[in-house]
Amino acid sequence: MSSQKIIFFDIDGTLYNDDKVVPDSTKEAVKAAKNAGHIAAIATGRSPFMYEDLRAELGISTFVSMNGNYVVFEDELIHTNPLDGERLNDITEMAMENDHPIVYLDEENMHSNVPEHEHMTEGLATLKLGFKPGHDPDYHIGRNIYQSLLFCPRGEEGVYQEHFKDAFQFIRWHVYSMDVSPRNGSKAEGIKQVVGKMNLDLNNVYAFGDGANDVEMLQYVPNSFAMGNAREEVKPHAKHITTSVDDHGILNGLRQADLI
Q1: What are the residue ranges of CATH 3.40.50.1000 in the chain?
Q2: I want to staple 81 with a disulfide (CB 3.0 to 4.6 A). Which of 69, 109, 138, 213 is the partner?
Q3: Which of 10, 106, 179, 210 is catalytic?
Q4: Helix, strand or coil for residue 214?
C-alpha cells in the first residue's frame, strides 16, 4: 500500500478568502507541500469549469468536484454520481410552483430554468464567478447533472427536504441557496474513490475545510483541519483547527501536520 500523502483542500473559505483570492502564504504552502513529495488535491462543491484557473495556478490535477459526485485523479475521470433525472424533474416542477429558481450543473456548464431572479443573482454574486448561468429550462433533460442549486430562502426548505429525502440531500451555503446533491454523495465519498485508486492508507490522507459540505470529509479523514474562519458548528467535526484563511491558515495547518 502506498505511503504517499495526499492533501484535499476545499476552495471557498479555505484556499480562497472572502474576496475569492488565494493568499500568498497559501500559494507558498501548497508549493512547499508538493515540493516535499505530497499530492495537493481539491475537494469542493464547485463544478470543474468554475476553478480551472485555480487548478492551473496551483498545479493541481486531482479533484473531487460537486460535493463528491464528479471525481478526477491525475486528469483521469474515475467516478461520477449524477442526480436522479426523474426526481430532478419532480423537484423542478415543485420549485417552479414556489417561485424558487434552479441552476443545473454538469462538469462543463451551468444553466438556470429561469432567465433572471433576484435570489439567484444575489446568491451567485457571492461566488464571484465572473459570468452568469445560461438560460435553458431543459438543460437537465437527457444529460447527467451532478448538482443543482436551489434558490430557496432560508426557512422554506422543509417541503423539499421531506418530499425528496429518498433521493437528494440539501446543503445550505447562502441565505437564498442550497446545493442539491445525490442522497449518497459527499466529499467523503469522492475522497474514498481517490484513496481506492491510489491504494492509499487513510492515515496518509489530510483535509482542510470550513463549511457545512465539509463535515463528512472532516469526519472521514483522520488528519482533518477546520479553518479558523470555519462555521462554529463545523469545527467540532475536525481533528484539528488552524488559523483563518487570511491568517496563514493553510501554511500553519501544513506545518502543524509536519507536511512542510
Answers
A1: 6-80+185-256
A2: 69
A3: 10
A4: helix
